[in-house]
Design goal:
The chain has about 170 residues and is an all-alpha fold. Bound molecules: iron/sulfur cluster (SF4) (2 copies).
Amino acid sequence: MQTNFTLAQLADPNIADADAILRNCVHCGFCTATCPTYVTLGNELDSPRGRIYLIKDMLENDRPADAKVTKHIDRCLSCLSCMSTCPSGVHYMHLVDHARSHIERTYRRPFLNTLIRNLLTLILPYRNRFAAATRLAKFGKPFAPMLEKINSLKPLGAMLRLAPGKIS
Ligand code: SF4
Ligand code: SF4
């Protein structure tokens, strides 16, 4: 893939790294077949190739991340299945990390989104907290369908739905 970063941009080692990764992509699209988000949603922007275009455009134009780019990058599961099918050895893993760091620096997330993300940061990496949250989730589970109807609370509803126990 042709890139057009300026020399000033390439002086930043993170941009130089992203540039080297982007240049390896030949747009073949083999990666789309093994990307779970593309297979599920069928949207090119939710495929590795689509995300690569979004990242290139954002970084090359030195643009702050917007809601659209953030949505499609957030949807990436970082499963790295795309890397195993890429014939050009594109290091998508590092590229998406650069994109995520750019998003964190330049995009102001909606309040509830930030709150849920901070909550997950405080719970998910800790086994005991995670176990306690899973046990407590059964009390919130009956509210899952209601929360899923409110756009900003959808992720919370989806998490409660996946928690052990039945929805009464
Ligand atoms: S890491 Fe997984 S979800 Fe993300 S683009 Fe690659 S295959 Fe798709
Ligand atoms: S398989 Fe590799 S080279 Fe082909 S579009 Fe995907 S990332 Fe680019």
